[in-house]
Amino acid sequence: MAPSVWESARALRAAYAAGTLLPSQVIAAALDRIALRDPKLHAFLHLDSERARQEAVEWDGLYAQARRNAAGDTLPPLAGIPVAVKDNLCTRGVPTTCGSRILDGWLPPYDATVIARLRRAGAVIIGKTNLDEFAMGSSTENSAFGPTRNPWDLSRVPGGSSGGSAAAVAAGYVPLALGSDTGGSIRQPAGFCGVVGLKPTYGRVSRYGLVAFASSLDQIGPFARDVADCALLLNVIAGADPRDSTSADVPVPDFLGATDQPRHGIRLGVPSEAFGSGVDAGVAEAVRAALDTFDNLGFRVEEIALPTLDAALPTYYLIAPAEASSNLARYDGVRHGMRDGSDDLFEMVTRTRQRGFGAEVKRRIMLGTYALSAGYYEAFYIKAQKVRTLVARDFDRAFAQVDIVVMPTSPTLPFAIGERVDDPLQMYFSDIFTIPVNLAGLPGLSLPCGFSAGLPVGMQLVGRAFDETTLLQAGGAYQQATSWHLRHAPEA
Ligand code: GLN
């Protein structure tokens, strides 16, 4: 069997076990495709090609051995599967830049918990993907190393900040990738690139080794081409971790097993606020058509209210920068990566930060420092925390009535590269429907639900805390009835 670049992780795994395909063939095909296409697309910042090839050959041998053994297939769930990871996840001895000059040359001395769990599950990590600097952005244009392009239209952005991971999955490089999501950075690029992306409940996945942006909002999650693969990867990374005190000690269900268990009577709530002004007609149309599909499948669709939806964006732009200004204080030229100057400490720190950070990161540090400063703290930061509680209560009220809240993932289609770089407010607007979900700590799943002007549209399913299962079941039912997720970006 010739390796198809569009195969799911589940199909690859089955073919390896049956001996019809070798991990080394699949890894070689992935690396060839990246070598051919990535000079244009720029999804990767760093490839770990040699190690990937070596590991693949080892898996070839282990699969052959397993087939000879009467014991059957005892290899781990991602054995020999190529996976890409966002470059803000620490990988021991492998460059981790966060898309920033300030971390140039830094080699993490340890693996993030999710990286260790991927390796334990047998995944072959082939490289680190591009992102907006320190995950601050919605287009991947804030990377210090140049933007990633959207595989559906190379003149457009892939979304962000996990644009490299979304593009790597959408371009047929890898079936699975990891990203991080503080205000939409998994879901929005998943929507823009026509793939599936999940932000788990806050606490579901350990953040140990994820370079912190806004610690009360950050969460790591999977990208895949279908809901079942997304569930498979979530199962690998989820679960409590003694190294992250905010990881929750709650049972991890069999997400993959649940995706194709039909479940009846799931109630969907649609906030009227999510279809108001600022939402592209093509986006609204595709999401409404998806709601009709759900209706036909026997889901109950009703209207709900999320009155604080509008307040979420300004609230986030106080809380996230406040936390970022504190988290990023550690980059001082002393401990990590780049250093500019040596004689005078104050001057060295100043010059390193001046040269090392890009414009958006500096803007966030200034906004956050201002919001936390004496005299403004009560008026801005504390007030934002109170509004955050109101946003969470809106969702509580909605979930007394329905099981899932459905919204567009993003109000617009993927925009042109360069279109919003000089207009931060327009850029921030991209996340208007994803940010409230981080503020409330809830799980959100984005999945492809149609096209407009040839570009993918994503819809977002938001669930109760720790109820990713219901989202995956609804998404699984939708994908069984539709074929949007089976379309592939053109071969450019
Ligand atoms: N686009 C949002 C921001 O710039 C969210 C980014 C993210 O989720 N990491 O902050």
SSE map:
Blueprint: H1 9-18, H2 23-41, E1 44-47, H3 49-68, E2 82-86, H4 113-120, E3 124-129, H5 163-170, E4 176-181, H6 187-193, E5 196-199, E6 219-224, H7 227-237, H8 255-259, E7 267-271, H9 281-296, E8 300-304, H10 309-327, H11 345-356, H12 359-372, H13 377-401, E9 404-408, H14 424-429, H15 435-440, E10 444-452, E11 455-463, H16 468-481
Parallel strand pairs: 2-3, 2-4, 7-8, 7-9
Antiparallel strand pairs: 1-3, 4-6, 5-6, 5-10, 9-11, 10-11
The protein binds glutamine.
Task: Give a structural overview.
- This protein has an 11-stranded mixed beta sheet, sandwiched between helices.
- It starts with 8 loop residues before the first helix and ends in an 11-residue tail after the last helix.
- It has helices at residues 9-18, 23-41, 49-68, 113-120, 163-170, 187-193, 227-237, 255-259, 281-296, 309-327, 345-356, 359-372, 377-401, 424-429, 435-440, 468-481, and strands at residues 44-47, 82-86, 124-129, 176-181, 196-199, 219-224, 267-271, 300-304, 404-408, 444-452, 455-463.
- It has 492 residues and is α/β, with parallel strands linked by helices.
- The protein has one domain: Alpha-Beta Complex (Amidase signature (AS) enzymes), CATH 3.90.1300.10.
- β2, α4 and β3 (124-129) form a beta-alpha-beta unit.
- Helices cover 41% and strands 13% of the residues.
- Glutamine binds at residues 135-138, 161, 181-185, 213, 320, 431.
